[in-house]
């Protein structure tokens, strides 16, 4: 078991990369601590598989180092890195039985046969494959094959880490939920470092204690699901996490007042002061739909907005609002009265973020 550190890591599939866009991984530093349950979350094409393949040794990075417990492993081939990797599509030996497929990684490292038996039975039980052990892998359904594939990743308890690359893509939705629970149980039982790649925020937050959000070849935030929700470090995290995503309003100062377009925003002095320090022209105020206070009558410090549309989602509603020249979404709970026509909004200081060139900056209070 190991801590995995990535130091000044970058990778391009091109032989002569020039601009940042030529890199699948843009220079980054990151540490996966020993024993953690992590998710690597990001949209398709952001570099998740590239990063996993660099960790497991299938791919050599263009620059930077991969360290396991402080030791540089760049030159080590995958089989010497002691890492298990489970891919999106099943990797099984069709002509072997399920039992032999599961036993393979253990026999490969000369594990005594009684121990092989013990582990195969344990993993088969966890993945509900016990009744299938004698079947040839080629006769299995796609779901079952992927379970075998996962079992092969889980069967050795002496690996440094297990990397899962969107392993549940081919799995039936009913089973998905169950398998994710199983993985979590297995993690708790063996305390192996696990990195679980997904593009699904729900999957990430049900599996992981900490999530690395990846965007355009960079980890833009590494935090608990709650941290990602409450204080997104990058506008992308704001959009990607939460449903609907965070509201962002382009803001600037006019005569000492914070404005978005031509509309003056009622926000605290601290925000205006922080804005005054900024030289970039790419400046946004971010606030989540959940954190906008919605009133049906004027209250101290509120801004009046037009309600364009209210979407009733059962236990809550999403209001689509127009505030001056920008549109906003706000969430109100079912017990809250839904205003009609106009709504009076407040942006609590605690829940507004200032984003400069897409990254969040601290507001001194
Ligand atoms: P993800 O797993 O997040 O979907 P990938 O790591 O597969 O992303 O891909 C990151 C970027 O690198 C994408 O732009 C993709 O097109 C590119 N890429 C991936 N694999 C290769 C490859 N073998 N050769 C060239 N480009 C690749
Ligand atoms: Mg991928």
From TrEMBL:
SUPFAM superfamilies linked to this entry: MOP-like, P-loop containing nucleoside triphosphate hydrolases
Domain ABC transporter as annotated: residue spans: 4-241
Domain of life the protein comes from: Bacteria
A GO CC term assigned to this protein in UniProt: ATP-binding cassette (ABC) transporter complex, substrate-binding subunit-containing
One GO molecular-function entry: ATP binding
Keywords: ATP-binding, Cell membrane, Membrane, Nucleotide-binding, Transport
Pfam families found in the cross-reference section: ABC_tran (PF00005), OB_MalK (PF17912)
Protein's UniProt name: Carbohydrate ABC transporter ATP-binding protein, CUT1 family
Organism: Modicisalibacter xianhensis
Organism taxonomic ancestry: Bacteria, Pseudomonadati, Pseudomonadota, Gammaproteobacteria, Oceanospirillales
């Amino acid at each position: 078991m190991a801590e995995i550190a990535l130091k000044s890591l970058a990778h391009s599939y091109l032989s002569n990369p020039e601009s940042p866009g030529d890199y699948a991984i843009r220079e980054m530093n990151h540490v996966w601590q020993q024993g953690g349950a992590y998710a690597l979350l990001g949209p398709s094409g952001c570099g998740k598989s590239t990063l996993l393949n660099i960790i497991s040794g299938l791919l050599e990075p263009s620059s930077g180092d991969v360290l396991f417990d402080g030791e540089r492993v760049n030159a080590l081939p995958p089989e010497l890195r002691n890492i298990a990797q489970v891919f999106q599509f099943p990797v099984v030996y069709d002509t072997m039985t399920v039992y032999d497929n599961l036993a393979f990684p253990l026999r490969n490292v000369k594990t005594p046969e009684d121990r092989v038996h013990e582990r195969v039975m344990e993993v088969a039980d966890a993945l509900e494959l016990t009744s299938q052990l004698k079947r040839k892998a080629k006769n299995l359904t796609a779901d079952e094959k992927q379970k075998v594939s996962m079992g092969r990743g889980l069967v050795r308890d002496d690996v440094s880490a297990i990397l899962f690359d969107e392993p549940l893509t081919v799995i039936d939705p009913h089973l998905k939920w169950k398998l994710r629970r199983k993985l979590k149980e297995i993690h708790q039982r063996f305390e192996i470092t696990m990195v679980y790649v997904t593009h699904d925020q729900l999957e990430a937050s049900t599996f992981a204690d900490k999530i690395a959000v990846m965007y355009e070849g960079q980890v833009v935030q590494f935090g608990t699901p709650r941290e990602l929700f409450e204080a997104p470090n990058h506008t992308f995290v704001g959009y990607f996490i939460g449903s609907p995503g965070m509201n962002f309003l382009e803001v600037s100062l006019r005569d000492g007042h914070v404005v978005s377009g031509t509309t003056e925003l009622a926000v605290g002095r601290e925000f205006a002061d922080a804005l005054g320090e900024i030289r970039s022209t790419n400046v946004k105020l971010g606030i989540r739909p959940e954190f906008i206070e919605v009133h049906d009558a004027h209250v101290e410090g509120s801004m009046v907005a037009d309600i364009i549309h209210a979407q009733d989602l059962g236990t809550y509603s999403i209001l689509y609002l127009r505030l001056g020249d920008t549109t906003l979404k706000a969430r109100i709970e079912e017990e809250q009265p839904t205003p009609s026509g106009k709504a009076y909004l407040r942006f609590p200081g605690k829940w507004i973020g200032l984003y400069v060139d897409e990254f969040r900056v601290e507001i001194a209070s």
